[in-house]
Write a structure and sequence with these properties.
Order of helices and strands: HEHEEHHEHEHEEHEEEEHEEEEHEEEHH
Strand content: 15-25%
Helix content: 25-40%
CATH class of the largest domain: Alpha Beta
Largest sheet: 8 strands, mixed
Oligomer: single chain
CATH architecture of the largest domain: 3-Layer(bba) Sandwich
Radius of gyration: 22 Å
Shape: globular
Length: 416
């Protein structure tokens, strides 16, 4: 039959894609907005969506220098969890996890959130003491967590080398059943479509080249397409936050580093949870396509490269192969890096600034994806009310003057 021929397939494929609605509009910028959100990644799109939905502020535009979700949102390992040690971080990330659980239904878009659980391995007695401390703190905050012994870990992940002569002996792990993974692209697309439906303008391929201010108040932004006025400007640009802050004459306590990740060739299902190890700084899960998604640490140097250094990948793969000997025969498919901005205490900045109407949401380091819904929720509230949301209050810029830091370095198992 014609429909099974090469010509027939091409004809029917073209026919079935005619007259499809666009997922969101591509409008020309207005001359003035109530709020301009700079950065079209997950956090920026979520901020715009919650501004419109929760606060009724719909004269909003998202400005993205490339395409929506083309930055760190599309360059991460998609791990979601909330088992952070300190109360302030735990409450913020648990808000995000609560929102993740209903996000597909709320956005009417399948973000492919899979609560397959997250294991944080312990390889030494000190690791296990830290795990027990963190799980106890989590449970006091109403966050699910269990301490597993070696046999229980082996039962969950039979491919792990849990033998006594392993290079990285597994003495146990923390286990958060509600954690898991989601599809990073779908998160951006879902928020974009929902924000557009509420009247938010999504403006791509429009780079911000300057922030205009006068008498201590923001007036709007300069772009390659001209000046756009705004009452408020909310900056959510991840690794480039310092660059944007400099446009307004601000200096933020941030460093930007490439963060490594890679995927393997696709395999049949063999790993149904997320496995993380702070000691070897490696983490692994299997995507719905079958790839092994593997993350490494940040490069030690500051930079904006999106490829990273091979020695970091080499070290991580050596460690992963020690933990999973059978994976030594699997071939790497592709490798990349994202650009992360890190604060001295490994926690984000969600804050208004000394410039009236200018706000920054940045410094998420290697833990930004999991926070996407919670970050947008509290940042939108902060921008709308010109005052920090209660869960964002500990994360203002002021903490670097007062000394009230929230040091999550290593405290949360691994910062991803």
């Amino acid at each position: 039959m014609d429909k099974y021929s090469a010509f027939g397939l091409a004809k029917h494929a073209a026919g079935y894609h005619e007259n499809w609605q666009q997922a969101w509009r591509s409008p020309n910028p207005k001359q003035h907005y109530d709020v301009l959100v700079i950065g079209g990644g997950g956090h920026g799109l979520a901020t715009a969506y919650y501004l419109a939905r929760n606060h009724g502020i719909r004269n909003v535009a998202v400005l993205e220098k490339g395409y929506l979700g083309g930055g760190n949102t599309g360059r991460n390992t998609t791990i979601i969890r909330s088992n952070y040690l300190w109360d302030e971080a735990a409450h913020l990330y648990n808000l995000a996890l609560n929102l993740w659980e209903g996000l597909s239904q709320e956005l009417n878009f399948n973000v492919m959130f899979s609560q397959r659980g997250v294991l944080n391995l312990g390889h030494s007695l000190q690791d296990m003491r830290d795990i027990q401390r963190r799980v106890n703190a989590n449970r006091l905050n109403g966050i699910d967590g269990v301490v597993l012994n070696t046999d229980e870990v082996n039962a969950k992940v039979p491919l792990l080398d849990c033998s006594t002569n392993a290079r990285y002996p597994i003495l146990g792990a923390s286990w958060q059943p509600r954690g898991g993974t989601a599809r990073h692209d779908a998160v951006a697309w879902g928020y974009a479509r929902a924000a557009d439906a509420l009247g938010v303008d999504l403006i791509q391929q429009t780079e911000v080249t300057g922030i205009r201010k006068s008498s201590g108040k923001v007036l709007g932004v300069e772009t390659a397409e001209g000046f756009i006025a705004a009452d408020k400007v909310a900056c959510v640009v991840a690794g480039h936050s310092s660059v944007l802050a400099a446009m307004a004459g601000l200096r933020l306590p941030l460093e930007s580093h490439p963060l490594q990740a890679l995927v393997s060739e696709p395999l049949k299902p063999c790993l149904d949870t997320v496995v993380m190890s702070n000691a070897v700084h490696g983490y692994i899960s299997q995507s719905d396509k079958g790839d092994l998604v593997i993350g490494a640490g940040i490069d030690r140097y500051n930079g904006y490269g999106q490829r990273g250094s091979f020695n970091v990948i080499e070290h991580t793969l050596q460690a992963i192969c020690e933990l999973f000997p059978s994976f030594s025969r699997v071939r790497m498919n592709r490798q990349w890096a994202g650009i992360v901005d890190t604060c001295p205490d490994a926690c984000p900045i969600i804050s208004k600034t000394d410039i009236e109407g200018l706000y920054f949401n940045c410094g998420w380091g290697t833990g930004g994806f999991k926070a996407t819904p919670g970050s947008g929720f509290v940042f939108a509230d902060t921008v709308a009310n010109d005052a920090p949301h209660p869960l964002a209050a500990p994360f203002t810029i002021d903490r670097f003057y007062s000394g009230a830091l929230i040091d999550e370095h290593g405290a949360a198992g691994v910062a991803h």
